[in-house]
Sequence to fold (154 residues):
Amino acid sequence: MGPLFRSRARELRRPQVFPYVIMLRMAKLLVKQTSDDDIDALAKLQAEVYPRMESWQRDQFLKQLEVFPEGQLVAKLGGRVVGCASSLVILWDEWADEYSWSQITAAGTFKTHNTSGMTLYGAEVFVDPRLRDGFRYCGVISRHSGHRPSLAKP
Fold:
């Protein structure tokens, strides 16, 4: 993936108002900043969402939280992790369209995060496959994270 959107970096550095509580079909969906306690469930869910791909390791999630905690969101339904959105800030001028997701995100470590940047790069959005039909949780998570589709190469 590689959703992109332009944003004002100063706003990204301000504390965000979390959590969002959204009512969907009589179920409460909680979208909040990711915490250390969410990581094991996120890794397990990512393995379910992408069964043919190696999921991120715990230390990779921790590094993302260390680098840019405000850009890491988790969605919970009934206390269970059902989705996530991960992002980092970059100076888009340093990157051209021919760069890959792996290059832009430093293989998911977010070492390329730059607080002087003006672009929020959506590195990942995934939702529990059992909830994709009918509920549109991915769209809710995306709206709260600011992720928008792009033509960036995976």
The domain at 4-145 is CATH 3.40.630.30 (Aminopeptidase). Strands lie at 4-6, 20-24, 27-33, 72-77, 80-90, 119-127. The chain has a mean pLDDT of 75. The longest helix spans residues 39-49.
